[in-house]
Each structure stands twice: as structure tokens, then as C-alpha cells.
User: Which sequence fits this backbone?
């Protein structure tokens, strides 16, 4: 079952994060990564701008009581968008609760993306329609689903890879380690993208991990590992695409930062300084790509305005879809617990209907 | 068909037939490959069906169940083995939060036809962590089917039904009965149905898995003392077959529930509650339980005191208010 790894893929990550663009948007001269094509870069920019506007809109919807809660990924757009656009058509995405921007980038309807947070049901979208697994709320459990899915694809002779998203906190969970081990033993075509945003709610990296980097954990499982600048969308796209095409497992740690609090219900000032946030705002992934595209003549004011208008239009459509009162039917409670509803649930459903009559 | 097959042999045959009939069926877990499992339930399957379909995994139960979920999402039907009852606990989150709930969370879009085989219960002189009766953890989780055979015949039938089921199934194998022999039959029985293993007029013994044989033995002994005992084998613990159980208790008016697991908060409590709610006016005595004590599973040299025995079940039968004149009254 094991496949031979490509010789250039190494188990240890580089000392410095791989990148293609410096924080001022100038290109890195000696990067081992290939710069994505111009049309890809232009699309990455468009999706990041639209994704960020969606994220802001979703946070606003919590203030209006339309969403119970929203975990923002502001600042992490390079990971959310770069990794999803790197997926090939047959590949699957296994996201977490913080990856709503990744979902809409994948084409999932925003209302279906936010169903969980809206509270009418748990999952709004059909995983098979967009090849997106259910958003994972308990940490790291999706890593094993991704490995199993990818291994099944291998057994079925399909050229399908799985991309699983997780955060720095999730790397402490046992399931992450079991998943990396299974992926290594099976050489399953699965890419683990750790968005290291510095904090697991309030707990910093220093209390989460003693290894030189999270990417260093790959060598223990025989999984090639990559450390990448997670605010450089060109680099994220390049490393994820290469990993997906490798036919085996890869652990990628992307260094990024969560600009907002854990959710709208969290107070980030209790555990981090405004100076730290300002330093990361200076490394903004959208600004960085815009600077590069502008210098290359791929982004002018007209294009910028058109993208901004598209983002506003998208936000308006999200508002329109979410500004509705969701009134799920109590009958839904008893549906899909089993393939065929057993008698005791039919009895309980009837009792509830009678109670409500 | 009069050939005698052991319960483990019947399971092996069911796995082999399922692998042969359906190319999407996979069997994996710890030591299930060339070794054939520590109880030899998968004996010969790796050789017969190849390493792609019957294989050993790393020793990690959450990993086994979690990857089985991913494989089922991708169209396969994994049948995985947890080597022993208590060794399945690392997989608890994957089972309860994902395997059990994904159909419901996704409104039926994701179906997970996964079977988790768990050798369970005591009576084999096993050291600690090898003898738990963990059924109540699973029956308390909506979305799971929980079944357990008491005979070789049911071992074959229930495992085939479980593998064919579109729902996830916790398949509990009574390890002390692995070597018990019996004939296989083609007679169909509903997947969800309990079965009257022995008919009687005076009292119903409700048992499952390893205790079915003990209950039947008790019925024989009780006959010598003049009690005509009916034995109901639950087979499916979840969903629960109220109909068959209540029909029996309504007929006999007395019942004892028997299981190896601890009594407090145990599966028997649910059975007693349901029988009492539904058969109250037919009962001549409170429904009693004979269960393991409310203690961690004891060491091998003490387990005989813990496990329900024929004598202990007979004692419970004797306490069912046979001399009462007022039917259904409570006497301390």
C-alpha cells in the first residue's frame, strides 16, 4: 500500500517560513516555491477581498442577533483562500468552525455556511455538493475523517486528495497525532494545514507546544513537513497545491494571526497587547498581494473598485439571506436519527405534536 | 443445516460472506490481518481477500473509528474491531460525537454504514480492562444501533444485518461464548426484534449476549422447582423491542432482567422502566434485576462472585411474591 515519496520532499521544515512575497509585497528572489500564474494571483486577490467582507458581515450579523456567535478568520485570509483555491476539482476539504471564509470560497452558499451559527440546524450544506466535510467543532476529529476519506480514495483508485484545516490548539489533541501517524503509515493523500494564529482562544503557543515549530511534528510520523508564511497567499497556494499533487501526506504549518477575538463573545484584550495586533496588521495578507499586483500592473484602481463593489454586493446578499426569522419545525428533531425512524421516536414525535397542539 | 459452528466461527463466516458479496466492505483493526484477531474471528480473511480489504492498523482506537468514518463518507462499508471492550474507550468521542450524529447533523446527507465489533463481558479469567460490559454507554447514544448475539446462529445473522445496515452499529460479541457451538439456520428474524428463546407461563427472564445461555440454564433448573420460565433474548439493545418483551411479561406477569454490567444506571434499569410503564396492571411483582455489582470489574479470581449465576437468578425468581394474595402490591 505504501508509495515511494518524492525525494525532494523532506520530513523537516525549513528554519524560516517559506514565502514568495515579503510583507511589503516585493517578491522573494530565491524562494524555492513557484509563483502562481497571474490569473491565479488576481483570483486570489478577488476571493480574499470578498471573503474578508463576508467575515465582517457575519460578525455584524451577531450584533443584530441573527447569528448566535461567529468565529472570525480576519487576518487569516491567505490561508482560507489560498488553500481552497489550490484544491483540484476532485479534492475534498475538511474544515473547522473558523473556516467559513474557506467554505464560501469553495462555493458553499453563505446562508448554508452559517446555518450552524444561525441555530436552525447543525449543518446547512450538502457535503457531497461541494466536496466539503462538515465543519468540525470539537478540535481535530476531522483530521481522522480526512485521512480515512483520502485512503478510501486511494483504495478506489481515484486521484483525490483531502485537505484538512486545523489550528495550533488542535495540534495538542490526540486525534491529530493518530491522524498524522495513520497518514504516514498509509501514505494517504492528505494535507494537514495548521493555521497557527498564535492563540487557542487565550492560550499562547508557548503553553501549547515545546517543539521548534508545529511543523517539526511531522518527522515523528514520517510525514513531510513545510513551514510557510501564512499571510503570503501566493506561498500558501503554492505549498498546498504541491502537497495535494504529491500523492502522499504533508503537514503544513502556516504562521498567521487572528486579528479579531476568538469569537464576538471573547475579549482578546485580556490575553494580548494592541502592539502585537498592530504588528500583524502591518503584515496584512490582502495589502501584501495588492502591493505586488499593483507593481506588476495586474491591479489598477478600476479593478480594485470593481472587486470592492463585488464584495459589497456579496455582503448585501448575505444580509438579505440571513435577515429572516428561522423557524425550524419541531418535527425536524426526530428526522434522520436513523435511516428509518424507529417506533420510540415516532411515539416521542407524536407526543411533542400533541403537546404543541 | 445441522453442522455445528462456534459463535466465533459464525462471525468469521459472516465477515467472509459479506466481503465476498460486497466489494465495498472492508475489515480492519488491531491484529485482524495475518494473525486473524486475538480471538481468531478474522482468521483467514486477509489471505482470502487481500491486504487492501482486510488489514492491520496502527494501535489507536480513535484513529480506527475516525478513519472508518472518513472511509464510509467516501462510499465504503468498514467493519472495524476493537480488541477488547475497555480498549474501545479512546474511540468514544469519534463514536458518540461523529459516528452517531453525522446522519442527523447533515439531515441524512451523510450516511455512515460502519460496524464496530467489540468483544465484551467477563467470564474468561481476563485481567483488568479486558472484561467490561460497556453496552449502556452506547445505548445511551441516539443514532447508534447496538446489537449483541447470544448464539452462533444470531452471531451470523446479526452481523450480516449489521453490515447491511445504513446506520452505524455497535456489535457486542459475548467473548465467553465465542467457543459455544450451535447450528446456523436461514430463518429470517427482524434486525430489531427480540426473540423468545424458551416459552413458559410463570416468569420471563430478559437477557442478552452472554447471559442468554445463563438464563436458559436457569430456566432448566427452575423447571425442577416447578416454575415454568420464559426466556427472552433481546438481541437488539437499541432500538428496543418493547412489543416482544411486553407480550411475554403480560403473559407471565413476572420478570427478571439479567446482565453482567453494573446495575446502577445500567441497561436493565431502562428495561425495568419500560416494562413497568407498559405492563403495570399485568405485573404480580416488581420487576427485578440480577446484575453485576456496582464495582469496577473484579480480578479473575473474584469474578465468579460478580457475575450473575444460575443460583442468583433463581433467588430473584423466588422473590417474585408468589404467595401474595393482593396482586401487584409492594412488600419490602
Assistant:
Amino acid at each position: 500500500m505504501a508509495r515511494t515519496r518524492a525525494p525532494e520532499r523532506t520530513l523537516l521544515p525549513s528554519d524560516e517560513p517559506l514565502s514568495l512575497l515579503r510583507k511589503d509585497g516585493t517578491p522573494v528572489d530565491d524562494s524555492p516555491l513557484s509563483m502562481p500564474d497571474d490569473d491565479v494571483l488576481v483570483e486570489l486577490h478577488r476571493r480574499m477581498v470578498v471573503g474578508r467582507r463576508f467575515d465582517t458581515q457575519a460578525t455584524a450579523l451577531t450584533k443584530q442577533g441573527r447569528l448566535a456567535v461567529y468565529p472570525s478568520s480576519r487576518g487569516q485570509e491567505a490561508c482560507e483562500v489560498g488553500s481552497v483555491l489550490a484544491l483540484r476539482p476532485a479534492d475534498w476539504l475538511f474544515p473547522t468552525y473558523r473556516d467559513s471564509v474557506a467554505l464560501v470560497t469553495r462555493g458553499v452558499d453563505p446562508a448554508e455556511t452559517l446555518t450552524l451559527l444561525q441555530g436552525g440546524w447543525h449543518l446547512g450544506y450538502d457535503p457531497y455538493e461541494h466536496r466539503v466535510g462538515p465543519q468540525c467543532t470539537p478540535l481535530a476529529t476531522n483530521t481522522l475523517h480526512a485521512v480515512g476519506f483520502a485512503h478510501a480514495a486511494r483504495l478506489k483508485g481515484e486521484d483525490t486528495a483531502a485537505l484538512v484545516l486545523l489550528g495550533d490548539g488542535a495540534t495538542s489533541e490526540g486525534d491529530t497525532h493518530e491522524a498524522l501517524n495513520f497518514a504516514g503509515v498509509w501514505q494517504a493523500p492528505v494535507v494537514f494545514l495548521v493555521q497557527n494564529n498564535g492563540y487557542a482562544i487565550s492560550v499562547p503557543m508557548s503553553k501549547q507546544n515545546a517543539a521548534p515549530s508545529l511543523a517539526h511534528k511531522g518527522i515523528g510520523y514520517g510525514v513531510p513537513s513545510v513551514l510557510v508564511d501564512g499571510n503570503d497567499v501566493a506561498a500558501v497556494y503554492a505549498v498546498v497545491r504541491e502537497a495535494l499533487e504529491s500523492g502522499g501526506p504533508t503537514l503544513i504549518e502556516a504562521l498567521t494571526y487572528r486579528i479579531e477575538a476568538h469569537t464576538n463573545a471573547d475579549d482578546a484584550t485580556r490575553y494580548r497587547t494592541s502592539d502585537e495586533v498592530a504588528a500583524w496588521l502591518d503584515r496584512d495578507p490582502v495589502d501584501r498581494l495588492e502591493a505586488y499586483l499593483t507593481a506588476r500592473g495586474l491591479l489598477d484602481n478600476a479593478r480594485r473598485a470593481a472587486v470592492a463593489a463585488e464584495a459589497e454586493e456579496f455582503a448585501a446578499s448575505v444580509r438579505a439571506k440571513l435577515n429572516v426569522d428561522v423557524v425550524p419545525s419541531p418535527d425536524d428533531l426526530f428526522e434522520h436519527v436513523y435511516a428509518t425512524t424507529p417506533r420510540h421516536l415516532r411515539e416521542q414525535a407524536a407526543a411533542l405534536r400533541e403537546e404543541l397542539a | 443445516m445441522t453442522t455445528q459452528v462456534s459463535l466465533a466461527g459464525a462471525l468469521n463466516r459472516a465477515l467472509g460472506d459479506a466481503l465476498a458479496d460486497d466489494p465495498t466492505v472492508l475489515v480492519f483493526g488491531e491484529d485482524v490481518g495475518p494473525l486473524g484477531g486475538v480471538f481468531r474471528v478474522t482468521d483467514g480473511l486477509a489471505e482470502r481477500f487481500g491486504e487492501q480489504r482486510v488489514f492491520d492498523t496502527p494501535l489507536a482506537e480513535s484513529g480506527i473509528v475516525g478513519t472508518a468514518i472518513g472511509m464510509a463518507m467516501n462510499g465504503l462499508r468498514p467493519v472495524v474491531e476493537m480488541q477488547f471492550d475497555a480498549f474501545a474507550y479512546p474511540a468514544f468521542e469519534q463514536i458518540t460525537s461523529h459516528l452517531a450524529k453525522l446522519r442527523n447533523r447533515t439531515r441524512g446527507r451523510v450516511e455512515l454504514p460502519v460496524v464496530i465489533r467489540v468483544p465484551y463481558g467477563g467470564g474468561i479469567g481476563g485481567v483488568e480492562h479486558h472484561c467490561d460490559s460497556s453496552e449502556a454507554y452506547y445505548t445511551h447514544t441516539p443514532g447508534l444501533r447496538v446489537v449483541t448475539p447470544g448464539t452462533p446462529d444470531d452471531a451470523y445473522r446479526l452481523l450480516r444485518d449489521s453490515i447491511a445496515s445504513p446506520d452505524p452499529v455497535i456489535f457486542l460479541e459475548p467473548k465467553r461464548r465465542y467457543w459455544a457451538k450451535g447450528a446456523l439456520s436461514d430463518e429470517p428474524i427482524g434486525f430489531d426484534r427480540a426473540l423468545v428463546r424458551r416459552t413458559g407461563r410463570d416468569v420471563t427472564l430478559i437477557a442478552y449476549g452472554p447471559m442468554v445461555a445463563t438464563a436458559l440454564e436457569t430456566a432448566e433448573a427452575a423447571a425442577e422447582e416447578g416454575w415454568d420460565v420464559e426466556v427472552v433474548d433481546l438481541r437488539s439493545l437499541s432500538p428496543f423491542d418493547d412489543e416482544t418483551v411486553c407480550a411475554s411479561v403480560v403473559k407471565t406477569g413476572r420478570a427478571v432482567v439479567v446482565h453482567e454490567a453494573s446495575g446502577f444506571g445500567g441497561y436493565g434499569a431502562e428495561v425495568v422502566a419500560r416494562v413497568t410503564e407498559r405492563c403495570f396492571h399485568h405485573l404480580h411483582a416488581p420487576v427485578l434485576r440480577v446484575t453485576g455489582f456496582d464495582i469496577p470489574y473484579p480480578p479473575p479470581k473474584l469474578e465468579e462472585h460478580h457475575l450473575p449465576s444460575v443460583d442468583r437468578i433463581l433467588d430473584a425468581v423466588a422473590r417474585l411474591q408468589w404467595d401474595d394474595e393482593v396482586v401487584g402490591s409492594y412488600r419490602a
